[in-house]
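Session log. Operator J.P. requested a structure for one protein chain; no other inputs attached. Running the standard single-chain path with token output.
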Amino acid sequence: MLAVTLCAAAPVSALEQAPRSDAARLLGADAQGDNWTVGQAVLSDGFVWIFSVNTSYGAFQVNGLRRMKDRAQELRALALLQKMSRSEAFGKALVKAGLAPIRFGRDLVLDPFETVGNLLSGVGKMFDTVAASARNPGGGRDGLLASITGVTKVERELAQELKVDPYSDYSPLRAGLKDVAQVTALGSLPVTAGISFITGGAGLAASSASTASNVSGLVYSRTAREVTEIVIKKLTALGVDAAAVKTFAANRFYSPADQIAMAEALEKLGATNVNAFIANSATAGSFDVAKFNRYRAELLVRDSARLGTLKAFVPVAGFVVNVDGAGRLVAAFPFDALFWTDAVSRNLTRLSAEAATRHPKRPRVFASVGTLSPLAQAELKKRGWQIMKLD
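Structure written below.
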């Protein structure tokens, strides 16, 4: 009650420090697994939760709740691959293939925004310096991930059984998929047979909260090049100009699974000026931001009706928001929890000011998946926004 009282009387310049949360509260069973443990104290940059993760393959941080759910699914898959590699059937396949035993967890390569101790996520950086990510879109991907066209049919089959993205940016998983797929192919061990020895005949279940639960079947049945061609056709049909399509398709911070998910979501949404959203998304300068853009596209189509039926995309203050069927300006984001920190205040004040200048007669709705602190709600309302909480 004290926080609410303080917020009501707070001046426009009032700020707050994002609090810590607890890993078990945020993640439940995903806070720990056979090969990972999430640090109990979870920080925030005002936009998303920042998780510290210790694994058998190295320590790193994960920015964002849904991205952490994805990592947990990938770590489960990696643990299963290791168990599979120790089975008698796999050992025989290894001998038949004439290959050395697999060494898991090598070559850990991280998103620069997900190195331990970085207290600003890629999402926070994106909001703080909107144009910065446009300098080098798609750069920085390691050699393994840059060769997505080399991902084999067996790797895709294996990834499908494990309910993970075959083009994951988590390098230990990518290496594990590649190595195990090579043994199963050369050692004449069917993928399903190899996994059934460990799981009792079933593949790995996907958490409904993870991206794995929404991976398009096209990702598993088509090559990366074929998926990219489908994405290009879909976006072109939606009116996205050739330059934006080319830049988006070439940005390797997006996996083919991310790109087809976004294209399919935008198709279902049916809003006009998709070009604005894709041109903006094409500038993503980290895996962190690319995933955020994917999550946002999926959020918009999922909650379009609740948001007033989104009809169009419009650029505002370096970002792209929507106009609904009633003509309201709708800014909907998949934030974990929004706190009125200095960075949040600076950027949402800028967004609010330009929205008011460019669209003075439109009512404005600000929607977020995560909770908004009392101060964040109060300050956004002062700036003319109606607040909506999404699930």
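Operator note: Residues 21-217 form one domain.
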